[in-house]
Structures are given as structure tokens and as C-alpha cells.
């Protein structure tokens, strides 16, 4: 069975990824900067506590074990740090990018899955579906971090047989973790949920299970060239009304304020630069759709807000 190294393994996405891979009976190695009690862990799981920028330790894991797939979740906001991406996180990510892909390639790792973000596309004009070939117009610290990681991955494996897979993932949600959904319909300053008109405007997200299915698909895929960019997201947008109904059904919101379009929340440019989760209210009615056709060749992406448990 394949051996998989997961960085950021003790984070929100990382824990779920490790559990999902172990359920497939894969041999899994995990690294993260936080403590993990390994005493009751699956016998196929080896966890090493270290900083992701610790070249000697992480390289040692790759060099001492036959790793088939590197799933690089480290240096991602839903794993290693909160929503504010500062110079500290940018520096740590660059230190990691300078070594991890080259070490993996030199040790014949078959493929590398890099967790990136759909924020790289920024605010495109028009209503055409956002494809992997769409312009990269995003502007934030997190976008800069991930674009640099993408470029370093492509450079690090260029002269090897290692297949680079870049997963540009929409904001994640689960049945219990709905913060990214709530950010679209909740005014934290006023501490109130809100809706414009009938709430039928929508946003693109990614159920965590869709991402996990995609990662498992890459691990299990037969030999062949499947490198490149993938938009990983739900196949349908989630409307503001659906978000509010879902949160009400789970008793997480109370009264909802009816607002007129163009009023309520102003855009904070400085905060948008550093806060990964910050949402520009001016884009509320854009209804952008991400084209996930390429990713659906790897996994069905069948999960939605309605069937997520």
C-alpha cells in the first residue's frame, strides 16, 4: 500500500486527511509543530513534532522512508495559523518551499499535492466560470504565499519524475465548522446575521470531504501524467439563504436582518490584505462559479451542504 507524508497533520484539515488515509490502510507519516499523543494511534501512523521549516527533520522522514505521496498542507491558514497572515508566516513558508519539493523529488516521491487557494483568482470580471487558466489577480499576503509555493513546487520537480499537483481549494466547511460560510452572511461588528433581498445570490465553497476524496484520488491514481492545477470545490454554489437556513437549523444564528444591497458593511482594504477570511461585500452578487471539471476526473466531488454530516 502507498506511504503518504502529510505536513500540517495536526491541523483541522490535516487530522481529517490522516484519518481518511489510515481508513484506506495506507502507511501515513505526519508532521506538525503541535503536540500529538501518539500512544493510541493507528499502527500505520507515525507522527513527528517539528516546525515545517525544520529541513533536517522533515528531509530525514522523506529520506528514511519510501514515501509515495507528499500531501503538503503545512503553511495553510486552516492548519498552521489563524486568519491573519503576517510576515512571520510568509517567511516560514518560503523557508519550507526552498527545500521540501527538491528533497521529495530527489528521493523519488511519486507525486506531491500542494494545498493552495482559489483566492489566487481575485475578483475576475464577467460571469464566465473560473477555470485553471483564468488570470491570477488575487492580492493578499495569503495569495502571495501560495503563488510562491506553486512556483517553487513546479521548479523543484522540473528535472524529476515527481508529479506536481496543485489543488486550488475554495473555502472549506463541514457540518460543524461553518465559519467560512457564516462570513458571507454575518456582520461581526454588529453581531447580527443579514440577508439581501431573497438571499438567492451564492458563493463557491468546498466541503472538506470533497477535498479528502480528491487527495485520496491522487494517492490511488495509476501511473500517468496528471500534473498541474485543479480547482477543488463543490459542484454547485451555496446561496446566502441556504447558509442561513442551515445555521438556523443547527441553532447557530438567531434573528436575521434584512438589508438593502450596497449598505451595511464597508470594505477594509488593509484588513483584506492580511486576513484570509475577510470578505469584500462588493462581490456579494457576482455569483462566480469555479469550473471543477479537471478535479472531477480524479474524484466525484459529490458532497454538498445538504448531504454533509
Describe the structure.
By secondary structure, this protein is of the alpha/beta class. The protein has two domains: 3-174 and 205-236 and 288-297, Rossmann fold, CATH 3.40.50; 179-201 and 237-283, no CATH class. A seven-stranded parallel sheet has the order 3-2-1-4-5-6-12, with helices on both faces. A three-stranded mixed sheet has the order 8-9-14, covered by helices on one side. A two-stranded parallel sheet has the order 7-11. The protein is built from nine helices and 14 strands.
Brief summary of the model shown:
The protein is of the alpha/beta class.
- The order of strands across the largest sheet is 3-2-1-4-5-6-12
CATH architecture call of the largest domain = 3-Layer(aba) Sandwich
Indicate the CATH class of the largest domain. Answer: Alpha Beta
Please summarize the sheet with the most strands.
7 strands, parallel
Span between termini:
29 Å
Shape: globular
Number of strands: 14
Strand content: 15-25%
Q: In the CATH scheme, what's the topology name of the largest domain?
A: Rossmann fold
Amino acid at each position: 500500500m502507498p506511504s503518504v507524508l502529510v505536513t500540517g497533520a495536526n491541523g483541522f484539515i490535516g487530522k481529517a486527511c490522516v484519518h481518511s488515509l489510515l481508513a484506506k490502510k495506507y502507511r501515513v507519516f505526519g508532521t506538525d509543530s503541535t503536540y500529538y499523543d501518539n500512544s493510541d494511534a493507528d499502527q500505520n501512523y507515525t507522527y513527528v513534532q517539528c516546525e515545517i521549516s525544520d529541513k533536517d527533520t522533515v528531509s530525514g522522514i522523506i529520506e528514511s522512508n519510501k514515501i509515495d505521496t507528499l500531501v503538503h498542507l503545512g503553511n495553510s491558514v486552516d492548519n498552521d495559523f489563524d486568519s491573519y497572515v503576517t510576515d512571520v508566516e510568509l517567511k516560514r513558508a518560503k523557508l519550507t518551499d526552498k527545500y521540501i519539493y527538491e528533497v521529495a523529488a530527489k528521493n523519488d516521491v511519486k507525486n506531491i499535492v500542494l494545498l493552495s487557494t482559489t483566492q489566487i483568482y481575485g475578483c475576475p470580471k464577467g460571469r464566465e466560470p473560473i477555470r485553471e487558466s483564468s488570470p491570477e489577480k488575487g492580492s493578499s499576503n495569503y495569495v502571495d504565499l501560495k503563488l510562491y509555493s506553486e512556483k517553487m513546487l513546479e521548479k523543484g520537480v522540473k528535472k524529476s519524475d515527481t508529479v506536481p499537483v496543485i489543488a486550488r481549494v475554495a473555502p472549506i466547511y463541514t457540518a460543524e465548522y461553518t465559519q467560512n460560510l457564516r462570513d458571507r452572511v454575518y456582520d461581526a461588528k454588529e453581531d447580527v446575521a443579514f440577508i439581501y433581498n431573497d438571499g438567492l445570490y451564492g458563493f463557491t465553497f468546498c466541503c472538506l470531504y470533497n477535498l479528502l476524496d480528491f487527495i485520496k484520488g491522487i494517492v490511488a491514481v495509476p501511473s500517468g501524467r496528471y500534473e498541474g492545477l485543479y480547482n477543488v470545490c463543490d459542484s454547485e454554489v451555496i446561496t446566502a439563504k441556504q447558509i442561513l437556513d442551515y445555521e438556523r437549523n443547527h441553532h447557530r444564528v438567531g434573528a436575521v436582518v434584512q438589508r438593502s444591497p450596497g449598505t451595511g458593511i464597508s470594505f477594509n482594504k488593509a484588513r483584506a490584505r492580511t486576513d484570509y477570511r475577510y470578505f469584500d461585500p462588493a462581490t456579494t452578487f457576482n455569483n462566480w462559479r469555479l469550473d471543477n471539471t479537471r478535479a472531477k476526473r480524479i474524484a466525484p466531488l459529490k458532497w454538498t451542504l445538504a448531504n454533509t454530516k
